[in-house]
Amino acid sequence: MSEMLEATAADLGRLIASGETSAVEVTQAHLDRIAAVDEQVHAFLHVDTEGALATARTIDEARKRGESLGPLAGVPIGVKDVVTTKGIPTTCGSKILEGWVPPYDATIISRIRAAGLVMLGKTNMDEFAMGSSTEYSAYGPTYNPWDLTRIPGGSSGGSAAAIVAREIPLGIGTDTGGSIRQPAAVTGIVGVRPTYGGTSRYGIVAFSSSLDTPGPMARNVQDAALLHAIIAGHDPRDSTSIPAPVPPVVEAARLGATGDLTGVRVGLVREFGGDGAEPGVREAFDTAVESLVKLGVEVVEVSCPHFEYALAAYYLIAPSECSSNLARFDGVRYGLRVGDDGTRGLEEVMALTREAGFGPEVKRRLIIGTFALSSGYYDAYYGQAQKVRTLVTRDFTRAFEKVDVLVSPTTPTVAFPLGSRTDDPYQMYLADLYTIPMNLYGGPAISIPCGLSEGLPVGFHVMAPIMSDERMYRVAAALESELTPLPAPDLGRTGG
Ligand code: GLN
After folding, report:
1. What is the mean pLDDT of residues 355-368?
2. What is the pLDDT of residues 398-445, one digit of tens each?
3. What is the pTM of this model?
4. Which atom of ligand 1 sits closest to the CA of residue 130?
5. Residues enclosing ligand 1, CB less than 6 A?
6. What does the DSSP assignment read for 435-469?
7. Could you give the angle at which helices 221-231 and 469-482 cross, rounded to 10 degrees?
């Protein structure tokens, strides 16, 4: 495999800025890699070959004119297909948006373009980001490069698989309940959910507006931090965007990489102990905690008694919000329209369009959400879930009075076999057992690889207080410096 495909994003940026290599060469190498392996992996829904090469040429020309380039200028990136991209199809993994070409860029895309990154295309995902395996994509699943018979996680499974398959060094995902961290964990990459409101939701097709958070995905902590710094920051177009400076994530990742965590207090959540995680995952996690101790941290056990209700609350709040958000897909404004032959009324056309355009998991959520919000049930379900959300938040606030960060395994299991959970939604939902509390609270969290179990990656999860994203970067970078990096997966492996 070419060295260019193995390089970090930071190194690629340096080589391009110094003229040792060109953005066009780097882009072409990654496009060639996509052409060679994506038939097996199916990480991409759309590859923008010409657009990417054109952007790369403008970067090379800017350098030749003597303009100074940013740290990631010319570096390829893939973007989850839930993010609107001007002139480039955006499907959200759904048939209902097939053929829709957005007339505008999401804020994070404008920032990515302004920083000179080269967008290679749009990556596969569970329909409207609902799922944990990318099997709910209407365009077929993505396959985990570590074992092509297994799921790459979801809903940002396309970006995760593409990054670990060396098709791209950087990606964008969105995390509503774990959709950046869980796929990162089961593919052995780094995935970050920034503080809610730390990255703009403008132009991110809404699933659950009070939870949705776009964030960076990469093969190492420093690269994730560099991308984080580019996409984060206040956006007046998003009313929930936080008007405060971006936490110093790049500096924190650098500081962490020096490998000293003396005085940092790390909390283990008592309620996350027990038999929630399978033994191989628990073992890799425990070994990583020992490494943190070697780096100087103090480990403290904390209790978060309401975390056990977080999953149930999430599965009322997220469906409720999506039942409202997805009402806009009515066959009139976007994409698909079914049955509009002059014989039917508006409501019938809407119903036929939604029946044909949405897949089973989206329909399940719309039904649950509509029910939970209906009068007479609102207080019993949605209202109750919001109270639980407050209690989970209180657990975090109290825990962070005692510790700087909390840690846990990212997922209870390694990547599971394709098809093994699609008929059992509850089993699918359990994949986010450890990630969902953080979404209810709104704080930042990162997953980094911490070894293999049965030959498959295990993720280590670090959670920090709201707007203290730098803390988790510091701890994650230090741990990363202590652990042996995972090798590139052998794409030939299947089964086992
Ligand atoms: N797996 C969770 C769900 O299905 C989380 C999804 C997400 O974070 N977008 O809702």
Report:
1. 97
2. 999 999 999 999 999 999 999 999 999 999 999 999 999 999 999 999
3. 0.98
4. 4
5. 129-132, 155, 174-179, 207, 318, 432
6. THHHHHHT--EEEEEEEEETTEEEEEEEE--TT-H
7. 160
Side-chain half-sphere of 418: how many Cα atoms within 13 Å?
21
| Residue of 155, 156, 439 to mutate, ligand 1, most atoms within 8 A of C-beta | 155
- How many residues appear in the chain? 496
- Give 57-91 pLDDT, tens digit per residue: 999 999 999 999 999 999 999 999 999 999 999 99
Cα 212 to averaged position of ligand 1 atoms, centre (Å)? 9
Nearest CA among 78, 162, 83 for reference residue 121: 78
Structure tokens at 212: 């949705």
> For this structure, is 155 an active site residue?
yes
User: Rounded to an integer, what distance in angstroms lies between the CA atom of residue 266 and that of residue 405?
Assistant: 5
Contact (CB, 8 A) for 215 and 205: no
Cα 87 to its chain centre, rounded Å, is 23
What is the whole-number distance in angstroms between the Cα of residue 251 and the centre of ligand 1? 30
> Ligand 1 centroid vs 435 CA: distance in angstroms?
10
In one-letter notation, the amino acid at residue 426 is Y
179 is catalytic: yes
CA 202 to chain centre: 16
Out of 94, 179, 200, 320, the active site residue is: 179
CB 452, CB 181: distance < 8 Å: no
Nearest to 440 by CA among 325, 339, 259, 311: 311
Amino acid at 377: Y
Helix, coil or strand: residue 121: strand
Test site for ligand 1: of 432, 435, 440, most ligand atoms within 8 A of the Cβ: 432
